[in-house]
Design brief:
single chain; 800 residues; mainly beta; Maltoporin, Chain A; 28-stranded antiparallel sheet; 6-stranded mixed sheet; 5% helix
């Protein structure tokens, strides 16, 4: 747990704020709920009607749009208001309201309302939005959504950083992926492969939550929420996309998305398949200080993979205030690769030799979620969900070593079967309610999460005639993780301009690892109370200041606890570490927003005993495995994000740049501090020359930096594409790294040696995609800018 001094250091800046809030709380005006339902003369609900409350001086105070059932809700202080209902700029209803308590206007009949089912939306939201608690990247408005996979889109998303198979948000250590607010348990390579298999055509927007509240898991440092498409009008709409990518190998694919809605029932379904062929190269330089020798490892990896998958999401409106739903998904792929290596040595009595790794595997992932949501008339809400996820990986690895130039004369030949069977169960309940007339909102809930992993490791050696089982190098690894948690948050608005959300989360962590051979068992338990604070102050329509603080946990992944040793070749080994324990993280973040164009960000993150890979080199053999480094690492960040619109909003540019400072002084004296820059620019142009031509380009640069014992070389990611809209389909051509600017170089240092990696990960290439839309769902024909005018968050028209 955190020491008393550490807690005081982080809580002291907020103590004055809490005292100030408590002293002023009696001066805050209470907020009252106004609700009603708008019906047309045909007896059908009127959707997307603009409901506006104005002061006596005709200044709009708050505005909302009616939902698919014609319902609306507004929150205001007591007073006299002018109540208007407008549709596409036409005034349909007007009356005076005197608000002294909660007010139910009942059903409001509109005689001249036109049915919106036959009206089509022609406007669009901005590409990048800054909201009170998150940033939103509306990829549906960009050519990025055409013919890409989700991983490639995330690489080009503002404020996100991608390093090998790791996702993070600027100023934050790590990020957790959610899909439609449903958490993915995958991380690392598993998450990378999953997102590469997911087509981007069905994504509406990407939400980046930089300071999650206590409602979210303690391991969620920051959140990337992928919001998928759905239709709210009767009928169906679909998209078919065919893609082909040419790098060092050809990778064709296709996907099919369908959205269906009828009255109270809606369903989204997606099906995709594809084949990936790739070739990568990697050069390792392994320096042994004790032996004063070097091993040079040059490898070429050829891989192919077939994948197929399907997902579906179902929603049913059981009543006007309740929804029952379910999500089901399945994915299969068979990663196969052959890695050929040449091993040579300097100042070592070892002759050059060759080696080969052949991996043959298949992966099956299946999951489902059943949920229920109820909205009360008193503005309370109750949500319940039950999740299950299964991840089964079967892999066979054959390793051979032979004298250089003589691949048939084996000096070593091994066969390893390593299967991973992972099952995750989660049960979650959330409840929120307004606390009387105090203007305060409470949210509470609990979650039970069970993870079970079995990983048998069967090691066999060639005896000259056949493979024989070696019990000394074989084992069976079991991992059991139980996490029980509960949270409470309280939210209130002060001075009509400041929203404050304070929270506390309790998590009980119980982890057990079992090595069945040798009966080696490890277990760890932890009980943590984790506070959080989010404050948002709106000065006026142009200026907003947001503050977030959170205490979090950095848990080791189950694969990182697996102690089995995997041979990449005779001189380069990797393994997990069953002795890893929780690392604790504290994060502070300050955001300033000017209109919708400029965001300035300042953050500080401190990690106690971080979990990082460490490489030890003995007798020319390197072993890389994760360890808890004793001490603290602090990372500071200051950056800006700027949005620019050109050519009457046909072209937008998002520019971000920031400076990091990493303080490694408590852990690694060889590199006490590291200062580096991360910058990116995304340009998107639509309907150029009014000819349906779209352009998109992305440049992302990160300078060289050191995090504890690992130095990462400067990195420049670049991609460009052009697309053309036709009547019923879209065609796109994309190119990645045309000038071969992407460099992957890493240096891992320890007291025993240095490991330098130079890699070419098959980035440069050309892609083509053809997308066709179909369906009979009637879409809405309205100007979104008019419909969105006055739209607000939390009922406050000052928050944009």
């Amino acid at each position: 747990m955190l020491t008393h001094c550490a807690l005081m250091r982080f809580y002291k800046p907020f103590s004055c704020l809490f005292i100030f809030i408590l002293l002023c709380s009696q001066k805050v005006d209470a907020q009252f709920l106004i609700k009603g339902k708008i019906m047309g003369s045909d007896g059908q609900p009127v959707e997307m009607a603009e409901v506006v409350l104005l002061k006596k001086d005709s200044v709009a105070l708050v505005s909302k749009l009616s939902d698919v059932n014609g319902k609306f809700e507004l929150n205001v202080a007591n007073g006299d208001y002018l109540f208007n209902i407008r549709l596409l700029g036409q005034m349909l209803h007007r009356q005076m309201l005197q608000v002294t308590d909660h007010l139910d206007l009942g059903t409001i009949s509109i005689e001249n309302a036109r049915a919106l089912k036959e009206i089509v939306v022609t406007g669009k939201k901005p590409l990048f939005e800054s909201r009170a608690d998150r940033f939103v990247f509306n990829i549906e408005n960009s050519s990025l959504s055409i013919g890409n996979n989700t991983w490639d889109v995330l690489r080009q998303t503002p404020l996100l950083q991608v390093e090998q198979e790791k996702l993070s948000i600027v100023g934050a250590q790590n990020a957790t992926v959610y899909i439609n607010d449903r958490k993915s348990i995958l991380r690392g390579k598993d998450l990378y492969q999953y997102l590469r298999s997911m087509p981007s055509d069905n994504i509406v927007r990407i939400e980046i939550i930089t300071s999650p509240s206590a409602k979210y898991d303690a391991s969620d440092g920051a959140i990337i929420n992928l919001v998928l498409k759905k239709t709210d009008v009767d009928g169906f709409k679909g998209i078919i996309t065919l893609t082909d990518e040419q790098k060092r190998g050809n990778s064709p694919g296709g996907n099919f998305n369908l959205n269906y809605h009828h009255r109270k029932y809606s369903q989204n379904a997606s099906f995709y398949l594809g084949q990936t062929n790739s070739k990568t190269t990697e050069d390792l330089q392994n320096t042994d200080f004790a032996q004063q020798s070097q091993a040079l490892i040059n490898s070429v990896n050829k891989a192919d993979e077939f994948r197929i998958g399907a997902t579906t999401a179902i929603n049913y409106e059981a009543t006007e205030n309740s929804i029952i739903g379910a999500v089901f998904e399945f994915q299969y792929y068979n990663p196969n690769d052959v890695k050929s290596t040449i091993n040579s040595f300097i100042n070592a009595a070892i002759n050059p030799y060759g080696s080969e790794n052949i991996n043959d595997g298949n992966v099956q992932m299946a999951g489902g979620s059943i949920f229920y949501s109820l909205k009360g008339k008193d503005k309370s809400s109750f949500d319940l969900s039950l999740d299950y996820f299964s991840h089964n990986r079967k892999n066979n690895n054959k390793f051979s070593a032979f004298p250089f130039g003589n691949p048939m004369n084996f000096s070593q030949l091994t066969d390893i079967d390593n299967n991973i069977d992972k099952n995750n169960y989660a049960f979650k309940v959330d409840y929120s309610k307004a606390l009387g007339k105090s203007g305060m909102k409470m949210e509470t809930g609990f979650k039970v999460n069970l993870l079970r992993t079995k990983s048998p490791y069967i090691f066999s050696e060639w005896n000259g005639n056949a493979f024989t089982y070696n019990p000394l190098l074989s084992n069976d690894f079991d991992y059991k993780e139980n996490i029980n948690s509960a949270y409470l948050t309280l939210q209130r608005r002060f001075f009509k301009k400041m929203d404050v959300l304070i929270g506390i989360r309790y998590e009980n962590t119980d982890i057990k690892t079992i090595l069945n051979e040798g009966e080696e068992n490890n277990s760890s338990q932890a009980n943590d109370f984790l506070p959080s604070l989010n404050a948002n102050y709106v000065f006026n329509k142009s200026h907003r200041l947001s503050l977030g603080y959170r205490s979090m946990l950095w848990r080791p992944y189950s694969n990182e606890l697996n102690p089995f040793i995997f041979r990449l070749n005779e001189n380069y080994l990797v393994s997990g570490n069953s002795n890893l324990y929780l690392a604790r993280v504290q994060a502070l973040r300050l955001n300033y927003s000017f209109r919708s164009s400029l965001v300035m960000m300042l953050s500080m993150e401190q990690v106690n005993n971080p979990i990082l890979n460490n490489t030890e080199i003995n007798n020319g053999i390197s072993l890389t495995r994760p360890e808890n480094f004793a001490g603290k690492v602090r990372r500071y960040y200051f950056g800006i994000n700027y949005n620019l619109s050109l050519l009457k909003n046909r072209m937008t540019a998002n520019i971000s740049s920031g400076i990091y400072k990493v303080d490694n002084s408590e852990i690694y004296l060889n590199s006490k501090n590291s200062l580096y820059n991360s910058s990116a620019i995304l340009i998107n142009a639509s309907n150029l020359f009014k000819a349906g031509i779209n352009l998109s380009g992305y440049l992302g640069y990160t300078s060289s930096y050191t995090l504890v014992n690992k130095n990462t070389h400067s990195f420049l990611y670049n991609t460009f594409d052009i697309s053309k809209n036709f009547k019923d389909y879209k065609f796109k051509i994309g190119v990645v790294d045309p000038f071969k600017l992407i460099i992957n170089q890493y240096t891992m240092s320890s007291s025993t040696g240095i490991l330098i990696t130079n890699a070419d990960y098959n980035q440069r290439g050309l892609s083509f995609s053809l997308t066709r839309s179909f369906g009979n769902a009637k879409t809405r024909k309205a100007d979104v800018e008019k419909l969105d005018k006055g739209r607000s968050e939390n009922g406050n028209s000052n928050i944009k």
